Amino acid sequence: MVQENRITMTPNSNGHKMSFDLKVKHVAKPTLVKPAQETQKGLYLLSNLDQNIAVIVRTIYCFKSENMSNDMAADVLKEALAKVLVHYYPLAGRLTISPQGKLIVECNGEGAVFVEAEADCNMDDIGDSTKPDPVTLGKLVYDIPSAKNILEIPPLVAQVTKFKCGGFALGLGMNHCMFDGIGAMEFVNSWGETARNLPLTTPPYLDRTILNSRDPPRIEFNHQEFDEIDDISGTKELYNEKMEYRSFCFDPTLLEKLKLKVMSDATLEKCTSFEALSGFVWRARTKALKMKPDQQTKLLFAVDGRPKFSPPLPKGYFGNGIVLTNAVCPAGELIENPLSSSVKLVQQSVKMVTDDYMRSAIDYFETTRARPSLSSTLLITTWSRLGFHTTDFGWGEPVVSGPVALPEKEVILFLSHGKERRSVNVLLGMPVSAMKTFEDLMNDI
Prior knowledge:
alpha+beta; 7-stranded mixed beta sheet; 10 helices
C-alpha cells in the first residue's frame, strides 16, 4: 500500500480550508547583498541549455538547533552570502537580452535580494513542509512585488524567517537558468561552508562556452521534446478544475515490489527504481486523465548530462548540465500494454542521451529558438539524488528541505524521503475529478 499524504489547499475539493494560517511579517526592508570583494563586470554567457528554463524555483530549508538560537541567523547568512558571491558573482548580476535574442547576465555586482522576517508561530506549526504548498510555504520566500517579467526578478532572492521556537527557515527564489539542481545544491552547500568558515568543497566552474553550439549547427536527431501535440482529449479544459495536491510515498520495499511487477512478464531483465516509477506514474496519470486511445502522450524528463558529455563537464560546472529526453506513445497503447512496455520506453529514452544527442539539442535551439512543448505531456523532475538535506550554516543539517510549489501543472516531482533517503515521495497536482482514479492506481501494486 502506498502511503498517501494529502495537502489541503485553500479551498480544496471538499470545501475545507487550511486550519493554519501562517502569518509572516518582514521586519526590515529588503536589502541588496553585494559580493564582499570587487568581481568581474560585463556580460556573462548563458548556454542554450539554460535558455528554456528561465523560471523561478522556490525552495525552503528549516533549521533548529538545541545549542544555537536563531538570533544571529540572518546576520550569519547575510555575511556568508556576500563572501560566497565573490565565487558565484553572476548571481549578483541581472538578466537581460543579448543582441542575438538570448538571455544573458549583466554582471554589475548589484547584489542578491535579502529579506529578514518573523513568523507568529513555531516551526512545527506549519505542518509537513516536505510537500509543495504554495499557500503556506510561499510566505517563507520573498516575491518581488514590482516585477512584471522574469528580467525584473534578480537571479537570487533569499528570505530568513525566524520562528518563536528558536528555529528559522531559509527561503530561496533562484532562477533555473542560472543552474540546474546539482549546480544549485553545490551553491547552497558552498554558502553553508562559507558560513562555517570552511573552504569550498566544490568551487564553481564558470565558463559556459564549453556548451556553445557547433558552427555550423548540426541537428542529427528527431527532437520530439519540442513537438506540439494536439490535445484531442480535452485535458486542457480538465485542468481548469480545482486542483488537488498530494504526495505518495514509495519506501524501498514498495519500490522493489514495483520493479518485480515490471519484470513479471519477463520482457525486461532489469530496471531501476526511477525507470519503474516513471513508467508507472506516466501510465497511471494518462488513465486518470481519461485520454482518448489515439491521443499521443509525451513523457519528458531531465537526464544529467555532466558525465555523458565527451569530455565530461568539469567538476563544479556552474550552469545547466541537464538535457530533456522524451518518449511518445498513443494513450491507448500506454494503458493497454503491460507495465513493462511503458518502462521500456523510459529505458530507451535514457539510452538516447549521448554526447551527440545533447550537442544536437544545443544546435536545435540555436537554429529554431524552440521551447519544449508541454501539451499532452508529463514532465518528471527528480530531486531524489540532490543533497539539499546536507546543507549546514552552523545550525546542523535542515530539519526539512524541499520545494514550495510545483512549477507547472504537467510536472510530477520525485523527492527523496526518510532518514536514509531511500524512499521516494511522488508529488503532484491533478484536477479533483482525476485524483481519485490516480490514487486508486497508485495503490494497485
